[in-house]
Amino acid sequence: MDVFKRKTPEEILLSISKLHRGSLKIYIGAVSGSGKTYHMLREGHNLKGQGIDVVICAVSTLQRPETVEQLGDLERVPSIHWMKDGVEQKDLNLEALLERNPEVVLVDGLAHQNREGAQFPTRLEDIKYLLSHDISVISTVNVYELEGTKEVAHKLTGIEVGCCVPSDTLELADEVRLIDATPETILTRLGEGHLKGNKDAALFQRGNLGVLRELALRLVAEDVNDSLEAHREQMGFQGPSGATERIMVTTQYHWNGSIYVRRGQQIAKRLNGDLHVVTLRKKGKTLTKEAAAFRRSIMKLVEKVNGKFEELPISFRRCIPQILVDYANANHVTRIILGHSKQTKWQTFLQGSVINGVLKRTKNIDVFLVADRASQEGERILPAHIHTPKEPYKFRRLSKQEVEAKIEKIKRGRFKVYIGAAPGVGKTYTMLREGNDLLKKGIDVKIGLLETHGRIETTQQVGDLDILPRAEIQYQGVRLQEMDTEAIIRLRPEVVLVDELAHTNVPGSTNKKRYEDVLDILEAGISVISTVNVQHLESLNDAVEHITGIRVRETVPDSILRAADEVQLIDVSPQSLQLRMRDGKIYAMVKVDQALNNFFKTGNLIALRELALREIADDVDERLESMERKSSLRGPWRRKEVIYVCVTEISQADRLIRRGFRIAHRLKAVWHVSFIVARHTNDEWKTKLEMLEKLTIRLGGEFSYQEVLNRNQIPRDFAATASKAGATQIIVWKTDLIKKLLPHASKMDVLIVADYDSWQTSRNRVK
């Protein structure tokens, strides 16, 4: 982007108008009781502490103790009270607010409808009026109160929603922050009488709370993605960000066109990606009656599955790969879906191969080839319904093993994890606050391990909690400290707070990793509340390096999150996080500039935030599916998948294995790693091989190793092994062996993963 380019008169006027307009911040949650008002009021106190003039108007605490406490000494501008159906309503007193003229107004209920005869019919219009008078506003809204999600929420949960705001409301905001709360948290608050509502109402059913929570997570993730793309465009970055998937299906006006679209839609839903469908049409050529019918059918299907359809003109067949790749690059596509080639060797030689042409031109885009099972074996390509086994007869006597498994689950402590996009979002702060809340209820809570990093706000949250002494371990002549797991188990508190789940213990400790200590504590019947950042998840390690350029060394297996009873996201916007950093609330002031120019760069924080939102949305969806709900947003996965990851080189093998795991997990697939190489016997090779096997097993896959005499044998042997095992999809690097592998693998889906080294091109500026 040319920063020296002269602004147009319109751009100048827009910039000037923004100087005289207040800012809008919206707190969004799944349902009432998520904590939106609490956090809004807390921010009001923080702003007041910075010398900013803050008032509140039409704020509803609903007499929740924590929220009432947050009112503190904030100045209140009286609202206009009126009754509707026997319930008191509060309208903003615009005249009083303009006369008072504060810098910031805190106001609840963005979707509120005003009384008859009010200056404006809705609160949203009231807020726009205040913004136009250079008064900033912070407000709250529930996800089902947005027009765009109202219908989806009703369809999935049956909840009837009254007042709502236009679907583009979030786009008006300068900042949107999600207040995440697990269904367990909401139901606990309801049970304690801190929420208004009938506990038997549809809104407070556990499954419906999960659906609304996932809806909120995905909605904010989409909003964050828009801001990420705008930022990358402004900075001149090219290629996909690494935070989201965008699927492109290439098809023709043919009988199998709908099959490719359906396959693309299934993949896009499971990977939470956007779907683009493109067809190629020769310039000036009139379609046959049959082709025109297929065209209408495909366009209708793409519209039905919420995809984007485009028809790309071509002149010659040899232009096809370049046209497809140009479109993919322009639309930030991460995966191109094609059909297997049906050409003979001579046709490929004379006419060229579209697949080879695409592979040659793509750098940071995966290529997915749809299996050709239908034409060769007459199998159904569209997935058949997999019948869920019926629940065993309730009077059946449990086996000894089943009894033992249930007893172990009953004895095990409860596990909750707070997760965030980066250090400083407030995970430890929130964990300590919850610990004190539990302590007030008479629950025995101790701090097993706390890392405040010198943050004053965090230290203040320790309150009445006891911090257990750490164990001292002698290492290389130095006495170092670690969490005393044995002492915790011996003391047997009801709940223990453990910071930084991904921490690596000092050599000589009982366990290598802190999460292993946590598992021991849980097995002892002690509940644990812990914290972790999204970049520490094992399977996201490569995506995080792609986004930030930094390799995170300390990781936890993804299974740790799945083992948790609750996983709750602490969401903070990049602007707020960077402001905390500049104020010295995250790191010491001497480290601030370095952090802001590296890990805490705006683009990194936006992408990591989106990654965290999508990851927790997936976690919520997985939990909904485990409840056998049909209303999870991604929909049920009814195809039985078996995935084989083909590793032929030690270099970057761990990246391919992690990628295989993430895909297998999303598709609920059994997965294997097959390492086939020409003979290697040195000790260094064996060590690396053992590491790869451990990684595969840690992520829940099966690992096999095979040596061949000649490298050229690998494609045929691998395809035969995968086929014999009933593989439906194989995953391989884009190497020189691909051309030889594809003819042997036409009956399977093939995912050709872009070379990792080329990912770095997306971090380069356009020249």
Automatic annotation (TrEMBL):
A single cellular component GO annotation: plasma membrane
Coiled-coil parts of chain: none
Keyword Hydrolase: no
Superkingdom: Bacteria
Protein name listed in UniProt: Histidine kinase
UniProt GO MF annotations: phosphorelay sensor kinase activity
Pfam family, one: KdpD
InterPro entries: Histidine_kinase_KdpD, P-loop_NTPase, Rossmann-like_a/b/a_fold, Sig_transdc_His_kinase_KdpD_N
SUPFAM superfamilies: Adenine nucleotide alpha hydrolases-like, P-loop containing nucleoside triphosphate hydrolases
Ranges where the Signal transduction histidine kinase osmosensitive K+ channel sensor N-terminal domain occurs: 21-224, 411-620
Entry keyword set: Kinase, Transferase, Two-component regulatory system
Source lineage: Bacteria, Bacillati, Bacillota, Bacilli, Bacillales
Gene3D superfamilies given in the database record: HUPs (3.40.50.620), P-loop containing nucleotide triphosphate hydrolases (3.40.50.300)
